[in-house]
Amino acid sequence: MSPASTGASAVVGARSPVPVTDSRMAPGGPGYRRMSFALFLAGVATFALLYSTQALLPLISGEFGVAASEASWTVAAATGGLALFVLPMSALSERFGRRTVMTGSLAVAVAVGLLVPFAPSLPALVVLRAVQGAALAGLPASATAYLAEEVRPRVLVTAIGLFVAGNSVGGMSGRVITGWVAQEWGWRVAVGVIGAIAVACAVAFRLLLPAPKHFTAGSLKPRVLLGTVRRHLSDPLLRRLYAIGALFMTVFGGVYTVIGYRLTEAPFSLPQGIIGSIFLVYLVGTVSASTAGRLVGRLGRRGALYLAGGTTATGLAVSLAPSLPLVLLGLVLITAGFFAGHAVASSAVSRTATTGRAQASALYQSAYYIGSSAGSTVGAIAFHAGGWAGTVAVGLLAVLGVVTITVIGTRAARAVAVGQPA
After folding, report:
1. Residue ranges per structural domain of the chain
2. What number of other Cβ atoms are within 10 A of residue 132's Cβ?
3. Distance in angstroms (rounded) separating the CA atoms of residues 368 and 84
4. Segment (H or E) for 54
5. Which phi and psi (to 5°) does residue 29 adopt?
6. What would the pLDDT profile of 267-308 be if each residue is shown by its tens digit?
7. Using omega within 30 degrees of 0 as the cis cutoff, is the peptide bond preceding 267 cis?
8. Model pLDDT for residues 128-149, shown as the tens digit of each residue
């Protein structure tokens, strides 16, 4: 384990004093509330757009006459596009600034979102969604890098947790709104409504986000970028965090891609509007993400990850019951565990990387959304082959991976503590 990693491991969740001359933002200080709300809205727009078709997959399957595994590409293409472009977009943010890149990304994404309702075929819809995902790639890594530069270290986990909470609200509201709108007017009108909401969020974001005061422009030279990426990938702690983010998102992507199909079938046979309302459980994720800082303070980073993984696995097991209340309880636990784990892992990346923060965050986001694409596709294939139990099996394997990686990190930290090689 590198010295930087060891230091970051020791301070995650710590409350070391910050000099009074520190000009970065903190709760109660100038600009903090505006910044928090602006990035919250960015998170809302990002997740609402990114997953705008997920709750509508049964309707999309019906219109185009395709199976769940084919319709799921409207989700996988968006998350895959984000995963592929997040590193190049992070490089642009190092050169031109976080706020500039985030603003441009949202502008392109909402413009494409207004075209999505007019897609004439499934391939055209998949292409538009891929472009939309690529545009959104400028948001996640740039946002966490902005926070790492502009917010005091002792409140970084909390600040990133609020951004992740915006993700959960966007994911929840997008699915609930599309469910009810689609029930009355079809899926095309539903995604058009999400596009209009995202436009409002993008405008408010640009008006509210304070100008950065601690940004230093970097280089766009490929050699410099590759060197930064190589350093991050050589850090054992960062590699573990990237894998944890990907595995958590594999669970989440698979579950929420397939759940609509499960609930339309017997014994539930729910209408589209009710299925959309199921996503109100995302509010649990809003709470668990925003309280991740306190969780790390009490249990430490690895303890918080163990708890998040255990909660997710318990939810997967409970969701197997042929009872709607138990399915809902399972979704609550899965959502709480996922968002807590994501907030802890992503904030640890920002604390670990002392240079090239946008690239470090971009690598995490790339792994995270590769996990989402894999979960959406593999989860749908598993559902087609073995029903809901197949999707749950994929999720449990991913959680086992999270726990295994965290155990490896725990042993490495103990080895360092007693002076042995990690």
Report:
1. 3-10+30-417
2. 25
3. 11
4. none
5. -90, 175
6. 898 887 888 788 788 788 777 877 777 888 888 888 999 999
7. yes
8. 999 999 999 988 778 877 887 8
